[in-house]
Amino acid sequence: MKKILPVLASAFFLIGTGAAITSCKSGAGRGHEQGAAEKKLYHCPMHPSYTSDKPGDCPICGMKLVPIESEEAPSATEGPSGHEGHSPLQISPEREQLIGVKTGRVEVRELTKAVRASARVAYDAELYNSLFEHKAALSAKEKIKESPWPDVHERADALVRASELRLRQLGMSEDQMRNLNRDYPDPTNLLLGDKSGSVWIYAQIYEFESGYVRPGQTMRVTSPALPGRSFTGLVRAVDPILNSETRSLRVRADVPNPEGWLKPEMYVNAEITIPLGRKLAVPEDAVLNTGERQIVFLAAGGGKYEPRNVQLGAEAEGYYEVLSGLSEGETVVTSANFLIDSESRLKAAISGSAGSAGSGGHSH
User: Fold this and answer.
1) What is the dihedral of CA 103, 105, 110, 113, to 10 degrees?
2) Which of 189, 216, 238 is the last residue of a domain?
3) For residue 149, how far is the Cα from the chain centroid?
4) What gap in Å lies between CA 319 and CA 65, rounded to an integer?
5) 356 in the same domain as 282
6) How far, in Å, CA of 340 to CA of 347, rounded?
7) Would you call 6 helix, strand, or coil by DSSP?
8) Among 156, 104, 115, 118, which residue's Cα sits nearest to residue 328?
């Protein structure tokens, strides 16, 4: 009996010690998790990319750091509103006013694109000579039409075809060549201007704009040498061959010049107006272009903002044509979207870091 009592006492001691150790580990684990959950991060309202684990002043602008909201956000790469490194976020009314958030509407509207280019009043000896050569070839063909010699007709036809090819290379259309005498009654206006009040304007447009410009569109011409004056004419031809050095196309327009203000070889500014029709459009200030994709931030109400990938079409005056990603009537951020973008990226990074830490666990 005396031997049994010490054994029982030792057993109770070991059991009690084990329970105490287990309790300590459990309590320590809970304390660690609670501490991690209660740990706050602070950032600058004007520079959201700067963060700190304690309150203080922003070293960039001196503003007070504010706590980052702890609400749970979707992963940056999951869900309908997460887009490759961006997360939805919520901003308080005070911060909205501080950073100057403004919004605009996505709506169907008439869009007009303006292609602006440097230009000059024509002094085009090359086209002048080609026009006279073509007219001479047509005249020679007319004179020998009664000739009984077939080879004479063949040579005349060859001259006409060669002169037509040259004119095509200089940008003349088939219609213009058919109506040559009407469109170019006196080619000397390519050298000295037209006494009847018309001059040719040559504008150089960039390759990426070449798909928009067509004959028949309106060209408006201004010159620093003629302040307050503008001249309006029509595009007559677009060169079919791109300049390999400047990556540009030459556009030829016929512009009335009744008072003779525009002189040959004068440099001018040209603006070609291109109506695009009624299109779904978003304000251009709402679009953030990363180089690989375009992003806008939707204002969902109540201070909530959601990133959205969009596909855009033509750039018009103050707007982009929307091909996909937005619907009519939606509200988008047009001012302070760079700050919202920075905070969205920061929140996505924090969300990703928290997810990684939560799935990693601890080992002792």
Assistant:
1) 40
2) 189
3) 63
4) 36
5) yes
6) 10
7) helix
8) 104
pLDDT digit string, tens, across residues 93-129? 888 888 888 999 999 999 999 999 999 997 656 666 7
- pLDDT tens-digit readout, 232-253: 999 988 888 898 899 999 898 9
Query: From CA 177, how far away is CA 135, in angstroms rounded?
Result: 10
List Cα–Cα distances, 226 to 135, 266, 268, 269, in angstroms.
36, 11, 9, 11
Number of domains forming the structure of the chain: 2
142's tokens: 């007319």
- Cβ 225 vs Cβ 266: under 8 Å: yes
Write out the DSSP string of 109-158: EEEEEEEEEEEEE---HHHHHHHHHHHHHHHHHHHTTT-S-HHHHHHHHH
Q: What is the total residue count of the chain?
A: 364
The reply to whether 103 and 134 lie within a common domain is no
3 state DSSP class of 334: strand
Q: Is residue 88 part of a domain?
A: yes
Query: Sheet containing 42-43: which strands, arranged edge to edge?
Result: 51-52, 42-43, 66-67
- Per-residue pLDDT at 364: 39
* Structural domain containing residue 87: 74-110+278-360
- Token code pair at residue 67: 């706590």
Q: Which residues pair with residue 107 across a beta bridge?
A: 281
37-52 in b/e form (b: 16+ CB < 10 A) is eeeeebbbbbbbebee
Residue 266 tokens, joined: 């004068």
Q: How far apart are CA 286 and CA 291, in angstroms?
A: 15
Between CA 351 and CA 345 the distance in angstroms is 10
